Amino acid sequence: MCCIFAAAAIIQAVGLMAERSIFTGWDKRCTALWGNEPVFIGHNLHVSPLFSREGLAALIENYPRERYNIFHMGAKSGDGWFWRQGDISGMTGEEVIEAVSKGRLWLNLRNVNLVDPRYGKLLDDLLGELSGYMPGFLTRRRGSGILISSPNAQVYYHVDLPGQLLFQISGRKRVYFYPAHPPFITHEHLERTAVTGLGVDIPFAPWYDEYARIQDFEPGQMVHWPHFAPHRVENHDCLNVSMTVDFSTEPILRAQIVNYANGILRCGFGVNPRSRSISGLSFWAKALLQKTLRDTAWMKKKKAAHAQIEFRLDRAVPGGIVNLATPAAEGDRVMAHAEG
Description:
alpha+beta; Jelly Rolls; 2 domains; 11-stranded mixed β-sheet
């Protein structure tokens, strides 16, 4: 009976959220800055029961293996740079959240909009609301995920190929956004990311922070940053829950196609591509190239090399982590869009 009442409460809450705006404090400045500077906007998702600890625990327990990643990373200092991928099979949802609250772990529930229709409706609602604020904002592809990460955990300097929104649900983190141009990000970095899926495989220098936009991120805040702007994240000393939204408009989708094709030409054939045009004969030739080659054995091998499962969570062992494989080389850590 309690489960019935809880389910009814969630359904009622989702219905109420659909009747009111998800975003708060939107004004003309947000529209003017969108896509050009990091834009911080209020939201009300952090009060939704969809993101309660109990609701998230239930979601984790039934989550398809092919749609989640859990990562173990180095400390902010002392442990060096590493980022390895693991498995949560056999753990209850609450046990997973508890393990994350005590370790240096980052759980990414990818494509939650496809796994649970409630989050699919939420994604449709918020993108529909964005379209109301910005007529002409049309997405060709869309997806959302839920991130649950440890106190003091971090996501290393990386880049995302789709457009990104990040909603802070609980906890606090510090986000660093860097300019979307050299030396912070180059065409070669984007091409390699497209081919390998390894978002953190781009160089970082400490002096980059002098040029970063730095913001402490609170529950009830959403941020959108310029396309291809590198960024990194440092959690404060508290468990963090966030929701990500990735999207591709027509120009973004075409840029992804060009990055993939240019990456194949550069990494696979040793050709230095000269054009990054997203229209004309050059674009359509590259669209055909990447469509033909993206599912070949060579491409699958490239991506598989960065997806090795190296540990699993286990409630029965001290520290909760069982090592499964010899750690991969430092350059072979997988990112898989851990932060948007």
